[in-house]
Amino acid sequence: MTGWGWMAMTITAIVFWVLVIAGVIALVYYALTSVVDRFEHHARATPEQLLAERYARGEIDESEYRRGLDTLKANGDAAESRPRRTAPSPSTSAGDSGPGDGPR
After folding, report:
1. Which mean pLDDT values do the consecutive 10-residue runs of the chain (104 residues) have?
2. 19: CB partners within 8 A, 6+ apart
3. pLDDT confidence of residue 13
4. What is the C-alpha to C-alpha distance for residues 90 and 93, in angstroms, rounded to an integer?
5. Residue closest to 68 by CA, chosen among 80, 53, 82, 57
6. CA trace torsion 11, 16, 22, 26 (10° rounding)
7. Residue 29 near residue 23, CB atoms below 8 Å
8. How many angstroms separate the Cα of 34 from the Cα of each of 1, 22, 25, 98?
9. Residue 86 lies in a domain
10. Which residues contact 90 (CB under 8 A, 6 or more apart)?
11. Residue 52 domain-assigned?
12. How many structural domains compose the chain?
């Protein structure tokens, strides 16, 4: 092999390893940032937090903010006093009726 052949082979090997290392770094970076993003997106803001953010950004004024808080508190108290719905037990689900259960 001539001098140019060795030079081309050396440059090709260097470029190959630089691309492999850059690929590994990119994969690690993507994996770590996507994990952080998933946790941030799953943490849902409460209605009070959303209202506070809108007030902080200047989208609403103080009177709208106070009125919204009062409404949320009034609805929150009403929601807590309502009975909670529960999922039907497996024995009462459709298709599980026995011979003496009768119509539903």
Report:
1. 82 97 94 71 78 92 93 74 51 50 53
2. none
3. 97
4. 5
5. 53
6. 160
7. no
8. 47, 18, 14, 50
9. no
10. 96
11. yes
12. 1
pLDDT at 34: 73
Per-residue pLDDT, 80: 53
Q: Is 49 within the bounds of a domain?
A: yes
- Residue 25 buriedness (CB in 10 A; 0-12 / 13-18 / 19+): exposed
54 domain-assigned: yes
Closest CA relative to residue 47, chosen from 63, 62, 68, 74: 68
Report pLDDT for 5.
85
Long-range contacts of 43-50 (CB under 8 A, 24+ apart): 47/72, 48/72
Burial (CB count within 10 angstroms: exposed 0-12, middle 13-18, buried 19+), residue 51: buried
Task: Identify the pLDDT of residue 92.
Answer: 47
Calpha distance 64→70 (Å, rounded): 10
The answer to whether 63 and 51 have CB atoms below 8 angstroms apart is no
Structure tokens at 90: 């497996």
- Structural domain of 69: 44-81
